[in-house]
Amino acid sequence: MTVQHDFYKHIAPIRTAAGIFDESCYVAAPDDWWIAISDIRGSTAAVAAGRHSDVNFAAAAMIAALSNLCGQVPYQFGGDGAVALVPPTDMALARRALARVRSFAARDFQLDLRIGIVPVSSLTSRGGGVERLENAVKGRGDADLATEAMVNDSEDDGELPDLTGLSCRWTPIKAARGSMVSLVLRCADHRQVHAELARLAGLPTLNALQPTSLKAKWPPKGVVREAKARRGRVPLPLMVAATAVITLVAWIFVYYRIPAGKFDPNRYIKETTEGAVDFARADESLCVVFDCPKEKIPLLKEYLDGRVARGELKYGMHLSDHAVMTCLVVSPTDGQHVHFVDGGDGGYTSAATQLKAQLAAP
Question: If you ran DSSP here, which 8-state letter would residue 345 be given?
């Protein structure tokens, strides 16, 4: 049987929060596709040193490089890492792109990006999934799988990765309801937990952005990061200057809501708010960032702690007064833009650290 390499194009989009937990909306990844994963070694220390945005940017770089190479492919952002599926026809070029991204992270951000890629069949034959591959790449799991997943330094040809569209121009997103909650959970009943947390928080769903949340400012704090992603062979100071001009023009159109050709700033902001990626699921893990009334947070903790005491789940929670967003904008005019949300001050990374401590406890 020949696997259809365009399977992803024929999957119906999930358009509601409830659909995220509807298993009928999902299909199995073809065995001959490849699954790539990245993780930043020492991300906790980097976040503690105030480099949260650098960590997010380097993590999203893998998604940008593979999207620019392969077109529309499935992926997830996890704050200090990412996961993506790659069609077999692009596998050889994808390995090279991953090696380039690892070098980019080391050279431009002094971050150690661990990367691995294996065929889906290597995981299904082992009875595992994303977490099994992640643990192997981190050096604390299946040693044979880690060897198979390795992307060697020799696969980097010295060229820069294509990170077109990767940017971070929005100001930190202030919590409108009270606090930005970053949760990383391990449980079997994602749908039930998500629904109960929304009920306790008094929210129709758990989301991080409101229509009034997005604020544009010039120059954006991420102008140097974006210049590093754009520069190619251009000297960095020159590309910083060019990026400053590009972002100034974009800021004027967005800030003053000026339509230009096919670009409608109001529609763009609406799409950004509605399509922000503020959750991730893999195996038993559920990660979510949401804006929550402060007075409801004790109720959330009471519920989660109760389930921990009954052995039903484990979790880590981080609170901040804002969230941050890293963007991949292929086209701002036809809906091809994705915005990865993480809780401020190290949201996912800090919550994951708490989760690890809880998992290690007797």
Answer: T
With H, G, I as helix, E, B as strand and everything else as coil, classify residue 42. coil
Spatial distance between the Cα atoms of 96 and 101, rounded to a whole number of angstroms: 9
Please identify which residue in the block is written with the tokens 């001009």.
Answer: 245
CB 246 within 8 A of CB 229: no
Q: Which of 160, 164, 66, 38 is nearest to 104 (CA)?
A: 160
Predicted model pTM: 0.94
Identify the residue whose tokens are 């109001």: 266
Q: Take residue 98 and report the two structure tokens written for it.
A: 């991953």
Domains of the chain in sequence order:
30-162 (3.30.70.270), 167-215+263-360 (no CATH)
Alpha carbon distance 109, 149 (integer Å):
24
Report the distance separating Cα 40 and Cα 228, nearest Å. Answer: 18
Residue 315 exposure: Cα atoms within 13 Å on the Cβ side: 28
Query: Are 149 and 138 spatial neighbours (Cβ–Cβ below 8 Å)?
Result: no
CA gyration radius for the chain? 20
Q: How many CB atoms neighbour CB 125 within 10 A? A: 10
pLDDT digits (tens, 9 = 90+) for 39-92: 999 999 999 999 999 999 999 999 999 999 999 899 999 999 999 999 999 999
Using DSSP, state whether 321 is helix, strand or coil.
Answer: coil
Tell whether the model's pLDDT for residue 232 goes beyond 80: yes
In whole angstroms, what is the distance from residue 146 CA to residue 230 CA?
32
Which residues, other chains included, contact 72 with Cβ-Cβ below 8 Å and sequence gap of 6+? 8, 9
